[in-house]
Structure formats: structure tokens, C-alpha cells
Specification:
By secondary structure, the chain is α+β, with helices and mostly antiparallel strands. Helix content is 26%, strand content 29%. Strands 7, 8, 9, 10, 11, 12, 13, 14 and 15 form a nine-stranded mixed beta sheet that branches. Strands 2-1-6-5-3-4-16 form a seven-stranded antiparallel beta sheet. β11 (203-206), α5 and β12 (233-235) form a beta-alpha-beta unit. The chain is globular and about 55 Å long.
Length: 305
């Protein structure tokens, strides 16, 4: 989908006009995928826009950079201040945010040591990434998730997203909404850009990072909400047949939110509007909008900048 332009982008310490946030064609990350990213959202609340779990997103950006040995030239609090200033400058009431740290122009070749790190933060008004009024139609991709000993799944890195892009294109070309990827050992990993959950006999399950699944912040949010509801939660390996046999299946992500699944590999699930999926979706929306006071600590108001 086309990106709706905003007024400015924060780029290497300054707010620059959207069309002027440019890089050189010999940027290291463009050739070798040497970058880390975060997808974050600001939501409209009764007190104005607020960024959801900003500190956790920036902490994961730091961890990702550390794992790839990319040196961040800015502290977490500086990036937090820049994020809030950007949302305010663009006048968003709600928006999607993309934090990106990447090796820039300076050297070529696989030696990463001689390219400087650039950092950008962009914001734009983006609706839900997946439309799901009828529930998602998933297919198991022929592409496997990258082995955890090839690229660390805990790092939200740019390069490995080629794996996701290939899987998503395959699913779209076949007429499905999204792809489910399996780990190298055949267990369930995640979708192209969302964590996957199953519900069976009232128990909520989701695959671990050892299956190649990203440790999602929305995933963690939903696990917390479920535990607070008294729901039994298990982070454990799942087989594809566990999804076929589930009472409910849904996916989650910052861009997607909470999205029910209607079918996998043309096998219809018992319920698209499963009770726990609906309850968790409602609880998530209450948390991100500030309607549930218990989770106000997850919100960073934009006006506090």
C-alpha cells in the first residue's frame, strides 16, 4: 500500500522535509541489509496522542543493534524525545512510527567496521496493516523461517525481512491474505510480520523465539492482558496441525493489531469471532487508547515532549 506522506522525518538529529530524507545509492545497508528497525504506534487518547510502549521498542532497537554490532550514535532518551517531537511536528493524532538505524555511506564490502551509522524516525497515518472483517486466510509458505543460528531472531534486523517478503508475495500470488512460516525443524514460527496465537480448551499458546519468532511487543502485551484475565498462557512449540485443531487462531503485531484467522491451508477454523480473540482485542484497544487505567504506564504522551 502507498505511504501517505507526512511533513517531516527525523534524520540524523534534525527534522527534514519528507522528500529530502535521502541516502546515497552506495549505502551499506542497501546492499547488505545491515540495519535494525522498530515499528511503533502512537494512538489517540482522551488526553491527546500517546506512543504505546515506546521505551520497550527503543530498548529492543538497542538490543538489535548490539547483536548486529551496529553502534547507535544516540541514547535511548534522545530517541524518545525525537520520536515525540516528530509526532508533534507532523500534527498526528494517531500514526505508525518507523525507527531505523542502518550502516550508511562510507565503505563497501562485508566488513561492517568502516561505515557510519545513520538513524531515522518516520511517522505517517497508516490504518491497520491487515484487513480482517471476514478473518484472515492463511497459507503455510514453502519458505522456511531462517535458522536461529544463521541470524538471531531476537534482533529485528532489516536483512532477514527478505524471508518475510518472499513468503508474503507467495501467499498473495496464491490468493491468500498472509503467510505462515515454519521453523527449520517444521514447527510453527510466525507469520510474515505477525506473531501467531492459538486457543484450545481455553489455553492460549504462542511459539517461542527459539522457533525463529520475533519476541513481539504486541505479543508480550497480549500475554500480559491474558494473564491478567486469568487465562492460562503457554509459550511453547506448536505444530501446523495444532493450528488446524485449534478453537481459535489469531495474529498480532504493531502494524496489524489483533486479527482473527478464518482458515489455514483452506481448512476452515471453528470460529472466526472466537470469544478469547474478541476479549483480547477489546482489552488491547482499551490499553492503547488509555481507556484502561491499569496500563497507562505503557503510554508516553506526545505533549510531554
Amino acid at each position: 500500500m502507498a505511504i501517505p506522506e507526512s511533513s517531516v522525518i527525523w534524520f540524523d538529529g534534525a527534522l527534514v522535509p519528507w522528500q529530502e530524507a535521502r541516502v546515497h545509492v552506495l549505502t551499506h545497508a542497501l546492499h547488505y541489509g545491515t540495519g535494525v528497525l522498530e515499528g511503533t504506534r502512537a494512538f489517540e487518547t482522551a488526553d491527546g496522542p500517546a506512543v504505546f510502549r515506546l521505551d520497550e521498542h527503543l530498548a529492543r532497537l538497542e538490543r538489535s543493534a548490539r547483536m548486529l554490532r551496529i553502534e547507535l550514535p544516540y541514547k535511548r532518551h534522545e530517541l524518545a524525545e525525537a520520536t515525540l517531537a516528530l509526532v508533534a511536528a507532523n500534527g498526528h493524532r494517531s500514526c505508525y512510527l518507523r525507527h531505523l538505524a542502518f550502516l550508511g555511506y562510507g565503505s563497501m564490502g562485508l566488513d561492517m567496521r568502516h561505515s557510519p551509522t545513520s538513524v531515522s524516525i518516520a511517522s505517517w497515518e497508516w490504518p491497520a496493516y491487515l484487513e480482517a472483517e471476514r478473518g484472515l486466510r492463511l497459507m503455510t509458505s514453502s519458505w522456511r523461517r531462517t535458522d536461529p543460528n544463521s541470524v538471531p531472531p531476537a534482533a529485528k534486523a532489516t536483512g532477514p525481512y527478505l524471508n518475510s517478503a518472499l513468503a508474503r508475495r507467495e501467499a498473495s500470488d496464491a490468493g491468500f491474505d498472509e503467510a505462515l512460516l515454519l521453523a527449520p525443524d517444521g514447527t510453527v514460527s510466525e507469520c510474515s510480520s505477525e506473531n501467531v496465537f492459538t486457543v484450545r480448551d481455553g489455553v492460549l499458546r504462542t511459539p517461542p523465539s527459539s522457533a525463529g519468532a520475533l519476541e513481539g511487543i504486541t505479543q508480550d502485551t497480549l500475554l500480559t492482558l491474558a494473564r491478567d484475565m486469568g487465562v492460562e498462557v503457554r509459550v511453547e512449540n506448536l505444530l501446523r496441525s495444532d493450528l488446524y485443531a485449534a478453537d481459535e487462531v489469531f495474529v498480532s503485531g504493531t502494524a496489524a493489531g489483533v486479527v482473527p484467522v478464518a482458515s489455514l491451508d483452506n481448512r476452515e477454523l471453528p470460529s472466526v469471532d472466537g470469544e478469547l480473540t474478541k476479549r483480547l482485542g477489546e482489552a488491547y484497544r482499551a490499553a492503547v487508547s488509555g481507556a484502561d487505567e491499569r496500563y497507562r504506564h505503557w503510554l508516553t504522551p506526545v505533549q510531554s515532549s
